[in-house]
Every structure is written in C-alpha cells, then in structure tokens.
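Lab meeting notes turned into a lecture example. A postdoc, R.K., suggested we walk through two folding results consecutively so the class can see how the record format repeats. The first protein's sequence and structure tokens come next.
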Amino acid sequence: MLSLTKLQSGTLIITGTHGTVLRSTNAGQDWQLQATPATDLIRQPVQDPATGILYASSRAGTIIYSRDDGQHWQPLDKFTSASIKSLALDTQQRMLLGGGERLIRIPLLH
C-alpha cells in the first residue's frame, strides 16, 4: 500500500504497486480490487472538487482518471515518459505534474 485517500463521497481509495487500486464504500470493512490501465506504482490520487474526477499518476509517467469514485479507471494521453513524483490541481483548472527537474501543466477534464 502506498497511499490511502478519502474522497468527497466518503469512499476510500488505496493505491500501490503493480497498478493496484483498492476501493471501499463501507469505511474500510470491505475492499474491492479495481482494474486500472497502469502496471506500475500508482501514487496518491487527487480529486477535483469541482467535477469529482479523480486523478492519479504512476512512476512510469502514466496518468489515470476516474469519473465514478474510483470504480473505473482510464488513461489520459501520455504527456511524459518521465517518472511523475507529484500531481496537484491548481485554481486555473490545470493539473501540475512534477518529476525530476520538470513541471508539466495540462488542462483538467470537464
């Protein structure tokens, strides 16, 4: 397990290695493994408060997103092959990706 995130809905998401995403809708009593297009380490997801869309990055530069509280995950277009170490959302509807000595800005989904 790499991270535990509580979503606006109260759903809990755990991310980890090998593309692992676990999801709980009952405060952690039961967990379901969710399929993702990622195959490596998934870092802590971030939820857009305006749309509810959940974004997560992987060590291999993949960005995945979910529109349904982490049930289903899809890849975004590949923006970099560099390891993404940090993902944040700004107030101008952009995602900021940090990796190594680079900062990448991309627009959020609507």
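The second example is placed directly after the first for contrast:
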Amino acid sequence: MEIKELSDILSHNYTNAYNGEKVVQIHLFGIKYGEIIRKEKYSSKDIINQSGLNESYVTELNKGIKLREKVVFENDELELNNLGKILKDNYENAKNGETVSSIYLFGIKYGKLIKTKNYSINEIISISEINDSYFAELNKGIKLSEYITIK
C-alpha cells in the first residue's frame, strides 16, 4: 500500500469522524495500519502532511502505532496460552490408546493458525505440559493441516 493511499484513508476517517472522536480515529488508523507503516518505513509526519491534517497529530499517529504493537502482542500471548490449554485438555481427555490421534487432530485443527502466527511448537507443548516427545506428532498434525480441514 502506497503512502498516498494511507494518507487518503486517514483523511477520510478523520473527516467523517464525529466531534470528539477525531483523535480516536487517528489512533485506530495507527493500530490498523501500523504494521504496514513500519514495514514500508513510512514516516508518520509524511502521512499526516499528505492527509492534510495538522502536524501536531504526528504524535497521535505514533501512539496508535505503538498501541498496535501492544494489542497484537497481548492477543498473540493469550492465543498461544489458549492453544496450550486446548492441547492439554485434548491430551488428558483422549480415550486410552488415542492420545497420539488427539495430538494429530489438534495439529490439523489449529495448524493453519499456528503456521500463520509463526507460533513455536515447543512453546505450545511447554504450555500444555505434555511430554516433549510429542513434538513430532504435533508437527505431523500441523503438516497434515495443509491438506485436511476439520469442520
């Protein structure tokens, strides 16, 4: 996404915001587009200037970008912990002789999420408190998720 397009979006959001919510729109813009702004090394000042907003809003945009880093980190942390708990629950509630199958199924069901978010299999296993020897089984399930989906 080009800086011009980002500036146009910000200008539109700001212009259409209710009174008292204009600065909030700048924060939300920073949260939503912060990753692109950082990745492309765009300047907050350039985005604000091209959007036609007052230069004093550079600080507000930077706050939104910083908020994004915190929000995404905390969500990922919660999600990772939940995955570990789900794996533990699946493992502990598996019928006798079906523990490996339950780990495969977990990998198939959550594999795309794990790969997309680049979560560590070792960390998920550590959180779940199951034996490290199940790493290979979970990894197989995750690989199978490329070909199989559970509904």
